[in-house]
Amino acid sequence: MSDPHLNPKLFDEDCEQVPSRNGYGEGLVLAGEENKNVVALCADLTESTRTQAFKDKFPDRFVEMGVAEQNLATIASGMAAVGKIPFITSYAMFSPGRNWEQIRTTICYNNQPVKIIGSHAGISVGPDGATHQALEDMAITRALPNMVVICPADTIEARKATLAIAHLAKPCYIRLSREKVPVITTEQTPFEIGKAEIYHEGKDVAIIACGQMVYRALIAAKALESHKISVRVINCHTIKPLDKDTILKAAEECGAIVTVEEHQIHGGLGSAVAEVVSQNFPVPIKIIGVEDRFGESGEPNELLEKFGLTKEAIVKGVTYVLRMKGK
Amino acid sequence: MSITAQDIHKLEEKAVLIREDIIRMLLEAGSGHSAGPLGMADVFTALYFNILKHDSAKPDWEERDMLVLSNGHICPVWYATLAHAGYFPITELKTLRKLGTRLQGHPHRGALPGVETTSGPLGSGLSQACGMALGLRMDNSRRWVYCLMSDGEQDAGNTWEAVLFAGKYKLNNLTAIMDRNNIQIDGFTEDIMPLEPIKEKYEAFGWHVLEIDGHNMEAIINACNEAKAIVEKPVLIIAHTIPGKGVDFMEYKFEWHGKPPNAEEAKKALSELRTLQGKIRSEHE
Fold first, then answer.
1. Does A70 contact chain B (CB < 8 Å)?
2. B161 and A101: CB-CB below 8 Å?
3. pLDDT per position as a tens digit, A163-192
4. Of 3.30.40.230, 3.40.30.10, 3.30.565.10, 3.40.50.920, which CATH number belongs to A197-326?
């Protein structure tokens, strides 16, 4: 394993915490500076999605859509047809939630390089409640041909991902979080679309996570090590195309897998991993996520606990797959 | 831009040839829509043989005008027109809806030269055309964007999001043409979901609206040219058309919206169209 150059203060109590949407906002400005064809469209959520910085810097390349997500997707498709690289931003619940068919037909089937940015994904949206907590977005985007799906672990990775998709001539979806999450990577941490990164080496079990669950997976791995369980932690930020090599290598070398995501257990990262592993090198898998129910109001950490997205749940999952592996 | 009577006659004759090909390809395909394509044959002919800046030898020409067909189900008329305009061989029309064809049941970008965007799911074409118009304006381009849409898809929310948007951004490089044939699959538009007063609705949203007889070649061309002279607003041309136009037993009948003719019906339709062609020729002589 090469050094992932993680934040040295990762396990400290005062580890910096920033929402991943901030990194998107920074990355969008950088992408705009690099390429004048980059344009941004937002559906009445410019500040909270962090598209504001781009709007301030490039007012002529910013398009205010109003509360109209179907139009958001289709206007962007049209702009891409004449050479623009549109970033469309809203909450994940509304885009790609409300406008899924428009994304399917006019962006993915057309294969236009529209970049869909879904902020406020996951249960950790908090007090706004279930209507605003997108828990199905990776499933519905992952099912679309031509689509790239990325769920960054922190703000730095979100910035890198934003810049990277601007260079990719394909439809892409990036899933972002509302609340502050620990900054676990650094500028030096490798990031490549479609390449899962090993953040912690181990041989008994592999934890494959995405988004803010990567942090919790690292915490869980540390706790398990004190019990002499050697855990490999993989940041699988790209859900599609999935890094099959890294995942199958983990299956072969560790023999048991736990996946963790802030998403329904149906159709997301866990499903993607299970599809590859079950058909190529079957090993016991535990999929940790929201178990086929809607969210509710509450503080982010209260909700993560209530819905079983904690270090303790991951440790329990590891115990479960190790028992299966031993049979 | 003046157009001579001779030019008009040539276009009218071309439109009949296109209608004949529509009948032949639908018969061959065994499925597809009849009424809409026949009704829009005159508008498509006027666009591709008089109005549009395009080059069939260079479908990706950077100076070309953009055309979006929002109601993709009437694609037989688009395919027949593109073939007659030289984008691909007319013989290929026989492959409509068959396995491996470039002529998909609903048009697909990348499958066929001249098709700028995939369409079929209704209500999404106008907003794509708006996106093209805005993108081109950002580049100070003089290219024009045309959007052909049905009246039935005015039921869709996405259409109205686009109508609002075009009004807000004053997309003066956009001309939308509505095929006002008053039918949709389940019946007459005014029974399914009343649209009138549609002209006033668009005007209230900041559009300039023209109304024409969608089978009058000269009126179609004049309206498209007039639209280019309206500098402060997007323009909607409401083209009143007769569904199934040119084939007597299909005209005005919503039953012909979504089905192809059988062999006997096709024979009768082609015979009627030949008579129509003869009538146009004799008028010209």
1. yes
2. no
3. 999 999 999 999 999 999 999 999 999 999
4. 3.40.50.920
